Amino acid sequence: MKRILAAALVLAPVAAMAAGSAHDLVLSHYAVQAKQADSAFAGFSAQRGETLFRTQWAKGDARTPSCTSCHTDNPRDPGRNAKTGRPIDPVAVSANPKRFTDLDQVEKQFGRDCKSVLGRECTPQEKGDYVTFMTGQ
User: Fold this and answer.
1) CA dist list (Å): 45 to 56, 77, 85, 87
2) How far apart are CA 71 and CA 2, in angstroms?
3) What residue range is the signal peptide (predicted)?
């Protein structure tokens, strides 16, 4: 039992660093895209990410006017899909460390959710701002 506990204590920081690295890779991917789209790009903003998360958009699906429609006002809380009723794990990294670690999955979610909420694709800067906000939550 002591060996298991000792192993867990040794491996926990390694897992946290790996997740941090994965988040950084996702953000780096969006930074390259944002710079290509706008040469004046100067970095991501958690404040803009929070605004994106909380804004009530008018051009998406009426059932999902904002990210909070499914993810609740507190991104650390579990949500529920407004269309299907299916439970959703928290979107905040502090409550769900695996969020934003798999670029393919992140792109799949943004591809679906941006169209539903905003009525269009999210820009690379919006994606990076959103991930930046959620990694700080």
Assistant:
1) 19, 22, 31, 28
2) 39
3) 1-18
The model's pTM: 0.84
pLDDT of residue 8: 39
CA distances to 20, 54, 78, 100, 108 from 49, in Å? 18, 9, 19, 14, 18
Which residues neighbour 98 within 8 Å (Cβ) at sequence distance 6 or greater? 19
Handedness of CA 109, 49, 19, 4 (dihedral sign): negative
Q: Which residues on neighbouring strands pair with residue 80, listed in sequence order? A: 87
- Burial degree of 130 (CB within 10 A; 0-12, 13-18, 19+): buried
Tens digit of pLDDT for each residue in 57-105?
999 999 999 999 999 999 999 999 999 999 999 999 999 999 999 999 9
Domain residue ranges of the chain, discontinuous segments joined by +: 2-135
Residue 27 tokens, joined: 């953000």
Q: Which residues pair with 79 in a beta bridge?
A: 88
